[in-house]
Design a protein that fits this description.
heterodimer; A: mainly beta; 5-stranded antiparallel β-sheet; B: mainly beta; 7-stranded mixed β-sheet; 4-stranded antiparallel β-sheet
């Protein structure tokens, strides 16, 4: 079973609409990383969250780590075609400082 | 520009052959990693190296081997013992452990076994 559960697995959104992706762990998250991937390419770092309740924003993307540090959400406002891709969460669950556990990813399609 | 270079981008192999994937970084990072990505699954850690001349097994090391003779280089060999080698392989690096900052990823290598 996955240590990190991402939902939804995929979503289709109309251009200009908002979307939210969730990443849930049964263990405490000591660090939570959001990455974006175009199919067949490498991962691009988006944001890192470490403190409970922490929220970060970059352009139209906002990520938050809940107070209990077991769930993170990624929210995109007014989606654009450039937001299409696969979003992955990676987490440090404290077992090994060199092991980042990843969710299965959420595929985002933006329709014009 | 600093970054991570993986080669080749696409590779085809016959069953029973070993193949080596290259990973080079010029970020002066101490730590390097190899991940495997399969459809519908998260990235899984194959091997990691905290520092030159040292490496550790990850979650799915069977059928793979690595070396870390130079700080910049961390090649991965997929051996004939790997039962299902067709996958997308990603190399990454970081300044230190995960708590020190994010992982930087290469563009990946897609291996197909014919």
């Amino acid at each position: 079973s996955q240590e990190l559960e991402q939902s939804p697995q995929s979503l289709i959104v109309q251009e200009g609409k908002n979307l939210t992706i969730n990443c849930t762990s049964s263990k405490t998250l000591y660090g939570l990383y959001w990455y974006k991937q175009k199919y067949g390419e490498g991962l691009i770092f988006l944001m890192m969250l470490q403190k409970g309740g922490e929220e970060k924003s970059h352009e139209k993307i906002t990520a938050k780590l809940d107070e209990k540090k077991q769930q993170s959400s990624l929210h995109i406002t007014a989606s654009q075609p450039s937001h299409a891709g696969i979003y992955l969460c990676g987490a440090d669950i404290g077992s090994n400082d060199y092991k980042l556990s990843f969710g299965a990813g959420t595929t985002v399609t933006v329709r014009a | 520009d600093g970054g991570i270079t993986q080669s080749p981008k696409y590779l085809f192999r016959k069953e029973g052959q070993n193949v080596t994937l290259s990973c080079e970084q010029n970020l002066n990072h101490d730590a390097m990693y190899w991940y495997r990505q399969d459809p519908g699954q998260g990235l899984r850690l194959i091997y990691y190296s905290q520092i030159v001349n040292d490496f550790q097994k990850g979650d799915i090391a069977e059928g793979y081997s690595v070396s870390r003779e130079k700080k910049e280089s961390f090649p991965l060999t997929v051996t004939s013992a790997q039962k299902n080698p067709t996958a997308f392989y990603l190399c990454a690096s970081s300044t230190g452990g995960i708590s020190s900052g994010e992982l930087f990823f290469g563009e990946g290598s897609r291996l197909t076994v014919l």
